[in-house]
Amino acid sequence: MDAEAAGHIDRVYERCDAMLGRVLGRLGKRDLLMVISDHGFTTFRRCVHVNAWLRENGYLVEKAGAAAGSGDYFAKVDWSKTRAYSFGLAGVYLNLKGREAQGCVAPGAEAEALKRELSERLLALTDPADGQRAVRTVYDGAKVYSGPYTQRAPELVIGWYSGYRHAWDTAVGGTSGEVFSDNDSKWCGDHCVDRLEVPGVLFCNRKLAWGECGPHLADIGPTLLSFWNIPKPGYMDGQCWTVEKNERGF
Question: How far apart are alpha carbons 20 and 215 in whole angstroms?
């Protein structure tokens, strides 16, 4: 960080803290204040090109005689032989029969076995630069997603260790290049890593109590509705926390 930028982040936090102090000073007896972030941030120093890893390990196959280059948006992929691919910033999809136009992986036992194999191998992935493990957790999409659009969700979600993230080429469907590379972009901080690496914050001017599963982002809506005596709609996820009443019973 250069001298001109030094201290800027600290000053931003100081201004936010001062603003919060002003808000607290204006709260009435009935008022409830929550300060919430759904995630934090961490360093992003090494890119992991997941599609290149899938290509090197035979899960993603490029067309014979494909020209050199990044091949953005899967331009070079032979879908008849590709069993898995990645797109965006976390997910790994299986090339499923009945979902993808040229799917070759059968749903059911074949897909489940492939998910287990990919998970085990991704968890063992290490950075050749220093031998550090890159993947902290691999989540099963069938267990972490719910609702009417789960069929469109990735089969696996990669939870990276701090310092690692999906490569830019992977995010746009590129398939060529090395698996690991330095992140030389000005975008050197990110939150697209394992959720345990970037926990959010929850501050409140009243005591809150929640169930055994702990606080969840989805609980905020139902809690606020309950505080205002508004019934929770049937389509809304999340549980209601208990909000401590003040001395006047509000």
Answer: 22
Does CATH place domain 43-197 in 3.40.50? Answer: no
Give whole-number Cα distances, 150 to 117, 140, 141, in Å.
21, 12, 8
Other CB atoms within 10 Å distance of the CB of residue 173: 19
- Residue by residue, pLDDT tens for the chain (250 residues) are 567 778 888 999 999 999 999 999 999 988 999 999 999 999 999 999 999 999 999 999 999 877 666 567 899 999 999 999 999 999 999 999 999 999 999 999 999 999 999 999 999 999 999 999 999 999 999 999 988 899 999 999 999 999 999 999 999 999 999 999 999 999 999 999 999 999 999 999 999 999 888 888 999 999 999 999 999 999 899 999 999 887 666 6
d(CA 165, CA 17): 30
The structural domains of the chain, with segments of one domain joined by +, span 43-197, 207-250
